[in-house]
Amino acid sequence: MNITIITVGKLKEKYLKQGIDEYLKRLSAYAKMDIIELPDEKAPENLSDLDMKIVKDKEGERILGKISDDTHVIALAIEGKMKSSEQLASDLDRLATYGKSKVAFVIGGSLGLSDGVMKRANDTLSFSKMTFPHQLMRLILVEQVYRAFRIVRGEPYHK
């Protein structure tokens, strides 16, 4: 399985990079995983609704440019579906079983994802009703994907 994380914004924090690198190393036994970082749009703190839409649309165009037609897209969004680790594992296993070998998880910038990206998504996923920094979300996602592969293979992993 080829899994890509498409994310807006650059990861600067060393401790997050170290955590992500550790899980990517562990994941290499199960799947090929790539992370594509796209630049975020510079935006002042106080934006009008129209300005927010413009920023999200520009970031969305960059995201959509990295997704091929045969990719199953899972958008991370607060309003997405909440799933247990076991449900995510089952979903990834089902995708692999039915020949969907390309999966992309999409993490938007600080304003979220554009309507275009949400329409392209085959599924949505929410880890919580809380808002997390998108840099931290990347680490949480990589850990959960690793956990999913361990669950599918019946391998032990702490609960």
UniProtKB/TrEMBL annotation:
**Stated role:** Specifically methylates the pseudouridine at position 1915 (m3Psi1915) in 23S rRNA.
Residues spanning the membrane: none
CDD domains given for it? RlmH-like
Q: Which family does it belong to?
A: Belongs to the RNA methyltransferase RlmH family.
Q: Which Pfam families match?
A: SPOUT_MTase (PF02590)
Task: Please spell out the taxonomic lineage of the organism that makes this protein.
Answer: Bacteria, Bacillati, Bacillota, Bacilli, Bacillales
As its record notes, the protein acts as a catalyst of:
pseudouridine(1915) in 23S rRNA + S-adenosyl-L-methionine = N(3)-methylpseudouridine(1915) in 23S rRNA + S-adenosyl-L-homocysteine + H(+)
UniProt KW rRNA processing keyword: yes
Which Gene Ontology molecular function entries are recorded, alphabetically? rRNA (pseudouridine-N3-)-methyltransferase activity
Broad enzyme group = transferase
**Mind telling me which NCBIfam families this protein's record contains?**
PRK00103.1-3, tRNA_RlmH_YbeA
Partners and quaternary state?
Homodimer.
Instruction: Tell me the InterPro entries matching this sequence.
Output: Alpha/beta_knot_MTases (IPR029028), RlmH-like (IPR003742), tRNA_m1G_MTases_N (IPR029026)
Identify this protein by name. Answer: Ribosomal RNA large subunit methyltransferase H
Q: Where in the cell is it found?
A: Cytoplasm
Q: Which residues bind S-adenosyl-L-methionine?
A: 76, 108, 127-132
Keywords noted in UniProt: Cytoplasm, Methyltransferase, rRNA processing, S-adenosyl-L-methionine, Transferase
Q: Does the keyword rRNA processing belong to this entry?
A: yes
| EC identifiers of the protein | 2.1.1.177
Main localization, broad class: cytoplasm
GO CC term (a single one) = cytoplasm
